[in-house]
Amino acid sequence: MNIVEKVTNIHLVGIKGVGMTALAQVLKSMGKNITGSDKPEVFFTDAILRKLGILVHEEFSADHIHANTELIIASSAYGDDNPEIAEAKRRETPILNYPQVLGILSEKRKSIGVAGTHGKTTTTALLGLAMTDLSLDPMVIVGSQVPQFGDTNARIGKGDYFVAETCEYRRHFLNFHPQAIIITNIEEDHLDYFKDIDDILLAFKEYVDRLPAGGTVVCCVDDNGVRKMLDIVARTDIHIVTYGESKEANIRMSKHTVNNEEQAFEITIGEKFYDFQMLIPGKHNCLNATAVIALTWSLFHKTMANNQLIHSLQKTVREFASTTRRLQKVGNFNDMIIFDDYGHHPTEIRATLKALKDFYPDRYLVVDFMPHTYTRTKSLFDEFSQSFEDADMVIINEIYASAREQPIPGISGEKLAESIKSHKSNVHYLPKQEVGSNIRKKDLSKSIFLTIGAGDNWKIGQELL
């Protein structure tokens, strides 16, 4: 019996974090008494925690750690300078972080980890839904709200499978115990921790090495980083299944089209061809769906009727409604459709803008981007500067800093806006609080307004509605 199973009273430091809120739901379902603390800022997770009836303190204080507190679970954003963590150490109360608890939970089920620089959340949600539709009743932890899970970011299933979004940052995913892994892509990111791309590739290789003999890794062979990672994987006792548009893919996506706000594509498995449709934008989302199809086919085609398996997957993919902050259609203001997306890497920005242009070719595209972290903005500055080609108007906000970093001299939202101007016109720097009123003054009917970034500029869309 592990420590999570042994204890009853658990306190979560940073409970409003997406992963932490998902843990709270899972732990509550296990009969644990949960309390938590976080900043007073309102997040979408507040509603989930209220529904669960969990006491959430809107500040951090040593007074929240009691004699009967048996375990502290801390968000990775907080360290020894947090008064609650300091008090727990003084009391010698056991402390685990989020990745460690995710790892403990993964030991008890047939666990599937979804990893990659981009696309983890969408792919995790879609895989969880696919396995639900196949009556496998999985437990699922996702990095965003899933409308089809009842607007929560966790599914409390009683089946054998556990599907979880697993992150490479600080090698957190090496806490996880996977039976199968999806890797969507591998690029430079989190360079405040990783030395370079080779270090990132090594981390993913180490993750694959955690698979047991007979385990399965499904990965996108179109991606240069994935191909380089596969070159250093020496395992011969695991199943490596590739997917993508490449002719060398084991499970291939082809004949992608966009018509009347609907995507269609064909999947080739062996000598058979299957048609799929998606009602959300983005060719990258069709590739995410292909990853899910590849994994479920690899795991279940020998034990399920193949026609039934494919039919269920076709239904899941067509009905998928995306997740919160992943190309989410927020609403409509004076015939301006408002979208929001969490993309905070140049590749994600380019893919999201192209997806909207493909879906709405006749609409003017206004993009509000809030850069996330000084370190990422600095390390990918030139790439960010060239990521907005498909936008008709670009607004750059101030940088949304991480709790773990300090401002870097010479790196700012204003500097980024100046750099983007060297590649395209109609670029503006505006603090977040000024954007809504500025947009209201313009005639932007028959346009798209997209807020994108891992900060809080999503609030602009809410302000406009």
TrEMBL record:
EC number(s) given by UniProt: 6.3.2.8
UniProt-listed GO biological process terms: cell division; cell wall organization; peptidoglycan biosynthetic process; regulation of cell shape
Domain Mur ligase central, residue spans: 114-295
Keywords of the record: ATP-binding, Cell cycle, Cell division, Cell shape, Cell wall biogenesis/degradation, Cytoplasm, Ligase, Nucleotide-binding, Peptidoglycan synthesis
GO MF entries: ATP binding; UDP-N-acetylmuramate-L-alanine ligase activity
Top-rank EC class of the record's enzyme: ligase
Domain (Mur ligase N-terminal catalytic): residue spans on this chain: 9-108
Residues engaged in binding ATP: 116-122
Keyword Cell wall biogenesis/degradation: yes
Catalysed reaction, written as an equation: UDP-N-acetyl-alpha-D-muramate + L-alanine + ATP = UDP-N-acetyl-alpha-D-muramoyl-L-alanine + ADP + phosphate + H(+)
Pathway the protein contributes to: Cell wall biogenesis; peptidoglycan biosynthesis
Positions of the Mur ligase C-terminal domain: 325-434
Pfam families for the chain: Mur_ligase (PF01225), Mur_ligase_C (PF02875), Mur_ligase_M (PF08245)
Localization terms from the record: Cytoplasm
GO cellular component labels: cytoplasm
UniProt record similarity statement: Belongs to the MurCDEF family.
Function: Cell wall formation.
PANTHER family with a match to the protein in the record: UDP-N-ACETYLMURAMATE--L-ALANINE LIGASE, UDP-N-ACETYLMURAMATE--L-ALANINE LIGASE-RELATED
The protein, known as: UDP-N-acetylmuramate--L-alanine ligase
Biological source species: Candidatus Abawacabacteria bacterium RBG_16_42_10
